[in-house]
Amino acid sequence: MSERDRIGKGHHEKEEPFYAGQGRILEMIAASGPLADILTRIVLLMEAQADGLRCSILLLSNDGKHVRHGAAPNLPEAYVKAVDGLPIGPRVGSCGTSMYLRKPVVVTDVLTDPLWSDYRGLAKSCGLRACWSTPIISSHGDVLGSFAMYRHEPRGPNAEETRLTEAATRIASIAIERQQDHGMLREREARISLAAESADLAFWVLYPEQNTAWMSEKGRAMYGFTPDEPLTRESLVSRIHPDERAAVQTAFEQARASQQTFEMEHRIVLPYGKTRWVITRGRCLLDEYENVLEIICVTIDLSAQKQSDLQLQVQRDELARLSRIALMGEMTASLGHELNQPLAAIANNAAAARRFFDRGQIDPAILKQLLADIATASHRAGEVINGIRGMARKGKSTRSLLNLNAVIGDTLRLARSDILIRETAVVTDFDSRLPDVEVDPVQIQQVLLNLIMNALDAVEALPLAERRIIISTRSLRREIAEVSVRDFGSGLPKDRPEKVFDHFFSTKAEGTGMGLTIARSIVEAHAGMLGGEDAEGGGARFFFRLPAAQRLPVRQAA
Amino acid sequence: MTPVEKSDAEIVCLVDDDPAILKSLERLLVSHGFSVRSFNKPKSFLAHVQAHPVPLVVLDIWMEEMSGLEVQANLSALSPRTLVIVITGRKDSAAKLTALHLGVVAFFTKPFDGDQFLNAVRGALAMHPIQ
Hints:
Structural class of chain A: alpha+beta
Helix content of chain A: 40-55%
CATH class of the largest domain in chain A: Alpha Beta
Number of domains of chain A: 3
CATH class of chain B: Alpha Beta
Largest sheet of chain B: 5 strands, parallel
Oligomer: heterodimer
Distance between the termini of chain B: 24 Å
CATH architecture of chain B: 3-Layer(aba) Sandwich
Low-confidence stretches of chain A: 1-13, 553-558
């Protein structure tokens, strides 16, 4: 007969309540009952198994260096208080030592054992003689606390007491560990929700099967739901802006089908009409049969960001406009000339007409032609003024489908007189298969003017015969239209070529130093890029690239 | 008044690459009884001047093919007796100085007063020695 069987048999009458008690304690643990209550139940259950047995559970503090009171319902209060907070160490009674050494410490007589030398008086006053302590170890191998048995007579534990200790430490370990996990989980949830609340995030979960949804407090405020309004798929969908409802639902269904996460930028409309821009990221949780259990989403309010994007856009447009006006100031020759030519023609024609009348020789055919010419010239003057107004106008930029070769042609006409006066040859080399681009014509003309005026400045000091610039276009894989303006000047700054793009960098006395910076930001706002480099054979080459406009495929006629 | 066939010596030449200016100047001069020959390309005028006597030319400065000042410089070799009136689309003191230096008789910035221009044309033709 094994010892275990003998003990079991000898204490048979106590077996039933012991297992029942153990079961009740496990239930309490499963139900996440208070730890102090659970530990007290463990102690009482153990004490009930033998006469004169006193037990206690001590916990290891979070810093891992001190003992904390756990449960000791039948030990004197003075003793419990004295032990609470003691440091652990190699000579701190039975419990402090066993936690320190991570192994059971059996003291048969506290009055003689050196481990108790500091606590002998305390033990004696409480009538305790023997103390056997066992560390409570977690599933990860960490010390959680200790379980101790006390006797009033000096002796070591018998086999049953050893068995009870094993059971007690096992149950206590489960209870303490679970409580610690819960604590960590609660702490994490609290942190996430704190982060969410402060970051304008909404959390929500949709349970498609039950058609109910949970939403964080912030989320309800963001979506305009009251704190206890029941939520359904329909009530969530009703908040999505009608224009984006179909797109959001499609993204949702795709994510569900592909089990991927989804992300959608869309507007939500609050019951009182206010709209918000939000971005929603979500994920579907599936069960083992791939049914959607829940859809977990985070929604971020983008309204503030959208607003500042919009403000930035307005500022950028205004800066571009001011820079255009400055550019027009630099192009005095062209503007004056372009306007003076038709005005001169009008004045001459009018003077001629007056003379014809004075002389009484009026050929109606000549007069008719003369008046037509006056009308044409005044129309031309009007065009020039409209052009200036267009360059200086305020307001939203509008984009249209254009061919850059044509835009360059228009720009060269605008700068014609400046080019003439600077006696510079402008050579054009156009790719006839250049793809169309979708751009704001005024802004792109501004970029071109900038590059052309800079190129004219760069060649100004050259002898007449060498004074030329080359404007060329080419198509890159039919996906990108590239324009380059090449001069034969002294090239980019040698120390740091990139500085031509710096704000306020200028080599010109009257330059604002903003031209290229703004030109670059215009091109970038069109999803393109603008760069500059030293050209092979001398001079600089500035170029910009714009993506070809997306077009629907055109079916060829048979 | 009967139309009189004018000799080359009495014909005013106009050179401007802007057709509207050219046509309107031609009308202005014709309405005042001048005979006019218009050129919208400086080079064709330079070709003409080598074959015909030209007492007076009205030259635009800023033209695509060749600047009026260049034409003027060529003239001093090809036809030193031809008088020059310069018209320009913009105020440009440097160009004016060059033109005056090259012996221009008058300098006008467009748009200009028709009467002053006509006076300059009349004055130039009057001071030109009749051939």
